[in-house]
């Protein structure tokens, strides 16, 4: 996980994206290209990204001709990560009372995932 930001449900992901990218810019300065789904399309986001750095955004959209399930390039990475984090029972339901608590539990789930992988592959 490169960055994490939880916000209230009245803020669209497209409007929260610049704040997230601003928060990771100093730690990961070589990251310049963002893959996003159709919910992030629009000039408003592109204008805000130009103000905070040299970001390029690539919108991955589903084809109008597609019927049923279709694997989209790069989008599966995010969906796979959500599935991995969804295995943590605490994250199965949104019951946290504060944003800080929600962020903490997501980080704990991610740390758990990474440490298990390190233990599995690091000591052979």
From TrEMBL:
A molecular-function term among this protein's GO annotations: transposase activity
An annotated GO BP: DNA transposition
Protein name according to UniProt: Transposase
Lineage: Bacteria, Pseudomonadati, Pseudomonadota, Alphaproteobacteria, Hyphomicrobiales
Native source organism of the sequence: Rhizobium leucaenae
Domain Transposase IS4-like residues, every copy: 2-113
Superkingdom of this protein's organism: Bacteria
């Amino acid at each position: 996980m490169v960055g994490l930001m939880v916000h209230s449900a009245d803020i669209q992901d497209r409007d929260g994206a610049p704040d997230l990218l601003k928060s990771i810019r100093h730690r990961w300065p070589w990251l310049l290209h963002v893959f996003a789904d159709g919910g992030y399309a629009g000039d408003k986001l592109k204008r805000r990204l130009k103000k905070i750095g040299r970001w390029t955004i690539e919108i991955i959209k589903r084809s109008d001709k597609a019927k049923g399930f279709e694997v989209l390039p790069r989008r599966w990475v995010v969906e796979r990560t959500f599935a991995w984090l969804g295995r943590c029972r605490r994250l199965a339901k949104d019951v946290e009372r504060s944003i800080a608590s929600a962020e903490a539990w997501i980080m704990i789930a991610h740390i758990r995932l990474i440490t298990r992988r390190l233990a599995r592959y690091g000591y052979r």
